[in-house]
Design a protein that fits this description.
Layout: H1 9-15, E1 47-51, E2 54-58, E3 68-72, E4 75-79, E5 89-93, E6 96-100, E7 110-114, E8 117-121, E9 131-135, E10 138-142, E11 152-156, E12 159-163, E13 173-177, E14 180-184, E15 190-192, E16 198-203, E17 217-228, E18 231-234, H2 237-248, E19 251-259, H3 264-274, E20 285-289, H4 298-314, E21 318-324, H5 325-331, H6 334-340, E22 345-348, E23 369-375, E24 382-386
Parallel strand pairs: 16-17, 17-19, 19-20, 20-21, 21-22, 22-23
Antiparallel strand pairs: 1-2, 3-4, 5-6, 7-8, 9-10, 11-12, 13-14, 14-15, 16-24, 17-18, 23-24
């Protein structure tokens, strides 16, 4: 009885080096002259050869496929130089790039990650290049090298757009790019936010009621609680502050006491507890108050802070870092923080006297300051000025 061709390549590899039999016809390569015969002199036709750790295919005329892609039994494969089947590799032809997986099959509707980037091969197998992709309710863009835009601007049609950390087009949110604040509308079009200074206090259990010391306050930042070396505590005044801010029409934000030093696990547990309890709009500020308990390892402290800020951002809020300049310079690599979260510093540096207005002669000489806590008003109430419009995040 005549032997049947093994249809699937995986079975062919298991079957051995020389397989032959009847099969669907494959067109011959122009000029191809390489053939294969077994010890009995039988020429291999319309079948696979597994030899020297490589895979080859010989068409119905017995010639080896070389430098071409070919559909065989419904699956497209590529055979490169020397006829070797491409596996875990690429093939570019007619201006398009294709990818072949470990079995040698051309991929379709497939995401490929390598070199720190994400690529997409469409239903026709072609890699997306200078193309948009929409799925899961989001829009993504793959650039001229096929890499998905991530944390990157995109300019077209006379507008500016931004693709965030998950690669999705940012919409209905505020973003800061190169020190400039933008608002992304429903279509992702970025419009610069005209920064106007605004004023507000920050509050804890020592201030049961909200004050309006400037007479022009428009935001409040209240402590929800915190962690002291892993011990998590709450502040009962937080929920009352949130209700008072709502009644006044103020923008309400939150800070969390972060006395966890370099312990990322403690910070994670703290945020796991508090982030679901925030009484504010998505996009509003959640600040880490890092002014006590730092370890002697600056890089480890910074790693901990960044891990916390990333968790806040992932939860849908605006991360900030609160402290005072000498403490930050002594215990944190502030340049690393600003590289990932530009203009995210809320800095305390007090002027003298009891003026309710900021005296910029006392402004701390520090980069990336978005909110300046300029006075404690004689120990009664902390006063703050928003320098960049960041307190509008979540309230536009």
């Amino acid at each position: 009885m005549k032997r049947k061709k093994i249809k699937h390549l995986a079975l062919a590899l298991m079957a051995g080096a020389f397989l032959m039999g009847s099969a669907s016809t494959v067109k011959a390569d122009a000029g191809s002259t390489v053939t294969w015969k077994n010890d009995a002199g039988q020429q291999l036709k319309d079948n696979w050869l597994y030899k020297w750790g490589n895979v080859y295919y010989f068409n119905h005329d017995g010639y080896r496929l070389t430098n071409r892609a070919q559909k065989i039994d419904g699956t497209t494969y590529h055979f490169g130089k020397g006829g070797v089947m491409t596996r875990n590799g690429f093939d570019t032809r007619n201006g398009a790039t294709y990818y072949y997986d470990a079995s040698g099959a051309q991929v379709h509707d497939y995401f490929y990650k390598n070199w720190g980037n994400t690529y997409y091969f469409g239903k026709d197998g072609k890699r997306y290049t200078n193309q948009f992709y929409t799925n899961w309710g989001h829009t993504y863009y793959f650039g001229p090298d096929g890499a998905r835009y991530t944390n990157r601007e995109y300019d077209n049609w006379g507008h500016k757009y931004y693709f965030g950390s998950d690669g999705a087009l940012v919409t209905n949110a505020d973003v800061t790019l190169n020190g400039i604040n933008y608002h992304a509308d429903k279509d992702g079009i970025l419009t610069p936010i005209q920064a106007t200074k605004s004023y507000g206090g920050d509050y804890s259990k020592y201030q049961p009621s909200l004050y309006n010391n400037t007479g022009s306050d428009s935001f409040a930042i209240s402590q929800i609680g915190g962690s002291v070396n892993g011990y998590i505590y709450e502040q009962g005044t937080y929920y009352s502050h949130a209700q008072q801010a709502k009644q006044r029409g103020w923008r309400f934000h939150t800070y969390i006491w972060d006395q966890t030093g370099s312990n990322q696990w403690q910070t994670q547990q703290m945020l796991n507890y508090f982030l679901p309890r925030l009484q504010q709009h998505k996009g509003a500020i959640a600040a880490l108050d890092y002014e006590a308990g730092a370890s002697g390892n600056v890089e480890a402290n910074t790693d901990n802070i960044l891990a916390g800020m990333r968790q806040i951002k992932q939860a849908g809020y605006t991360p900030m870092l609160y402290s005072y300049r000498p403490y930050l310079l002594a215990h944190v690599d502030i340049n690393r923080v600003l590289a990932e979260f530009p203009n995210s510093i809320w800095d305390a540096g007090y002027q003298t006297g009891l003026s309710v207005w900021p005296n910029y002669g006392y402004f701390p000489s520090m980069n990336g300051v978005a909110i300046w806590q300029y006075s404690d008003y004689g120990g009664q109430q902390d006063l703050n000025v928003d320098l960049t419009g960041i307190t509008w995040n979540g309230y536009r």
